[in-house]
Every structure is written in C-alpha cells, then in structure tokens.
Amino acid sequence: MYRVLLSVFLISCCAIFSCKQKTAPPVPPTPVNVIKVTKRPVLYYDKYPSTTQALSQVVLTPQVQGYITGIFFTEGSHVKKGQKLYEIDKRLYQAAVDAAEANVKVAEGNQVQAQQDADRYVYLNNYHAVAKQLYDHAVITLDNSKSQVKAAQEAVKTAKTNLAYSTIYAPFDGTIGFSQVKLGNLVVVGQTVLNTISTNDPMAVDFLVNEKQLGDFEKIQKGKQRPVDSLFTLLLPNNTLYAHTGKISIIDRAVDPQTGSIVVRLVFPNPENDLKVGMSCIVRVHNQDASPQLVIPGKAVVEQMGEYFVYVAIDTIVNEKADASMSKSGDANSSSAKSGKSSSDTSKKNETDTANRKPKLRAIQRKIKLGQTIDANVVVLSGINEGENVIVDGLQAIHDGSAISIGGKNANDKEKNATTDSTGKKENADSTGGKNGSGKGTN
C-alpha cells in the first residue's frame, strides 16, 4: 500500500511540473548605430524658383495699315536705338502728305483774298460808304480763311506723322526676336504684331518669398545686414552656377493675400548674353547666420503626421542612479554606521559597483524642429542637445523605450571616414554646403 501511494504521489508531481508554462526568454537589445550631436559652422543656401525678365521690353505693332515692303535686321541679333527695322508701303502716305501741303496753299490763297476784301470794306465802312451787312460778311470770311489755313497745316502734320509711322525704328538698344511678318504681308493697326525687343544687360530675375521673410530681404536691400560674399547666386537650367552675382533691385509693392507671398527682383550682369528672357532658374540666397548649429544625418529623422522625431540613446542606469543618489547615500551611511564601516569604504564600494556595471541603453523618442537641409544632413533647431547620442541606423526595429545596444562601427567614425579624401585630409562637407553649395528650394 505504501508503495502504491508513493507511486501516485510521484506521478502527480511530474504531471504538475509538466503542466507549468515555460518562461519566455528575454528579448535581446536591438543593435543600433549612434552619432554624437555636435555643433559646427555650416554653409547653405536658401533656394527659390525664379524666372528671368527683361528690364525693358516692347512689342512692336504697326501704327498704320499697309503691306510690308522692307525688313532691315537679322532675327535674334542685337539692334541699336534708332535702327531701321521695318518699312510699310509709304506711297499712299506720301501722296497724303503732298495733298495736305497743296491744301495749305489753297487755304493760304483764300486767306489772302479774304484779307483784301476785308481791308476794302473796313475802309468804306469808315466813311459809311458800304452796307453794314457786307462789312460784317467780309470780316467773318477773313476769320474763316485763317481757320482753314490752320486746319490745312494740321492735316499736313497728320499726313507726315502717318508717313513717319510707315517706317519702324528700334526704340532702345536690345535683342530683337523672330519676325512675325514677312515681306508682302498686310499689317493692320491694333491686330498685327511685328516683333519684340528686350534689353539683355543687365537682366532681371524675379522670385517669390514668403511674407514672413520679407523683413530679412528689406534689411538686405537697405544695407542693414552684414554683407556676405556671393549673397545672391544663380543656378542655370542645366544646374551650372552662373558666373556673376546679383543684387536686390525691387521688392513688389504688395503681398498676394491668397498665397502670402511677394515678388522680389534681383539684377544680374549679363555681358556674355548667357541669360535669356523667360529662363527658369534657381536663386540661391546665402545664409546670414554664421554661428555653429546642431547638424545630424537626415536618415536619423522620422516623420509622423507632419511632425519630426529622432531617437536618442539614453543610459537608464545612470538616470536611475541620479534620481536615487540622495536616498542611496543616506542608506549607505546608516548601514555603514551600524556595521562599523567607514563612509570611505562605502564610497569605494559604490565606485566599484559603478565600474563593473554594464550600461542599459534605451531608445527615447524626441520631437524636434528642423531647419535647413544640407546634402544628406539637416540642421536641428530644437529638441535635442549637444553631446547626446542620436540613433541613425536600425530605426525600423525600435520604438520609444526599446532596449538597444551599440552595434557595429560608430556613426561618427563612419562620417569621418566618408569625409576623408584620398590624401588623408579631412573635408567637412556640411560646413561647406557640399561642392555645389546645396540647400533647400523654398521655405
């Protein structure tokens, strides 16, 4: 009987122990790479889409109607002020001038006749030898003759003006485009466009800025900010840097209430005629802040619902010890007093424990405010502090509070190796804004 009970007891114990669930093994820390946040002087440009405009531009249209009888320029060439460009058939307008001049002579002859009649009737009227009505008519006829002479003279001016309009001249120095008419084409006043002339040196460049930035550009225009070399530069459509720098010419009179933007006009020298009217370029505005700024790799930034975050590696043991340092020191003193140990022995023990412990790293999420983008890096305006370790790799496998471990080569070392050339000299790509001085397009 005893053996049976013992067997039942042993079988029950085995069954109970076999039914217990095994404890899941602890999740290992996620390996990540970090970079220490440092401040450095950076060079970058704010970029704005822009369009080139001519400071002076005119569309040539005819002032008289007729057929084109002459074209006296090469399309796309530079023309001088007063240069003859087009000629409209002037025969009708020359005939009108001749007829108007003949009418002037007729009117002048009538005036002479009326003057003689008026003089005669004035003399007779003084001696009451003529009817009063005839005298009045003679005086009125003389006045009408004088008015007819003036009208004929004005008709001559009009005819000569039309004759002058039959020849079109360049209003200023500039570049002329393709002719919209050919020899023999009929041109009509107010309908036909002949050509377009525009100035090309200097060339205007217009771009839009946000109304929040208006004060900065007004300070630059008034010369109240520290001048910077290459303050305004231009990237051509082929992404090459234009050889000349520009300056602010005009800021538009009003802000567009729908977009909150305003037009700023720069002026660039154009001696080689590289800039053409209507080109789409990029205006680069040199940053005015020369103070060091916090710069981190752009891949360390996580965007969530329009907000930006980074993960910072925090040693939780250090934080816990800092929070409980006062209570621990009090407990250590009281225990050492009871055991007869000195405070120096207790402090040595704490230092030994601190030296032997392993760091317990956690990924803590921080909300940040971003500034300028510079190549693969970004400027951080707020949210992190200098000296903190920002996680740059392994972001997909962590969340706020995840246990992490520093694995692989430190990101600072990678950055140093990436910015060291073949000669062993270190280049700071961020501080120079890259070879092309890249920055963002619009604020």
Helical residue percent? Answer: 25-40%
What is the number of beta strands? 23
What is the first-to-last residue Cα distance? 92 Å
Which class of the largest domain in CATH terms? Answer: Mainly Beta
At CATH's second level, what is the architecture of the largest domain? Answer: Beta Barrel
Q: What is the CATH T-level topology of the largest domain?
A: conserved putative lor/sdh protein from methanococcus maripaludis s2 fold
Radius of gyration: 46 Å
Query: Helix segment count?
Result: 8
Number of separate structural domains: 4
Mean pLDDT: 79
Secondary-structure-based class equals alpha+beta
Largest sheet: 9 strands, mixed
Rough outline: rod-shaped
How would you portray this structure in words?
The structure is a single chain. This protein is an alpha+beta fold and 443 residues long. The chain folds into four domains: 27-42 and 291-327 and 356-443, conserved putative lor/sdh protein from methanococcus maripaludis s2 fold; 46-55 and 199-286, Efflux pump adaptor protein, beta barrel domain (Elongation Factor Tu (Ef-tu), domain 3), CATH 2.40.30; 65-89 and 168-194, RNA polymerase II/Efflux pump adaptor protein, barrel-sandwich hybrid domain (OB fold (Dihydrolipoamide Acetyltransferase, E2P)); 91-165, Helix hairpin bin (Helix Hairpins), CATH 1.10.287.470. Helices cover 32% and strands 29% of the residues. The chain is built from eight helices and 23 strands. The strands form four sheets. Strands 1, 2, 17, 18, 19, 20, 21, 22 and 23 form a nine-stranded mixed β-sheet that branches. Strand 18 and strand 19 (307-315) form a beta hairpin. The longest helix is centred in the first third of the chain and has 36 residues, at 91-126. Mean pLDDT is 79; it is low at 320-324, 332-343 and 409-443.
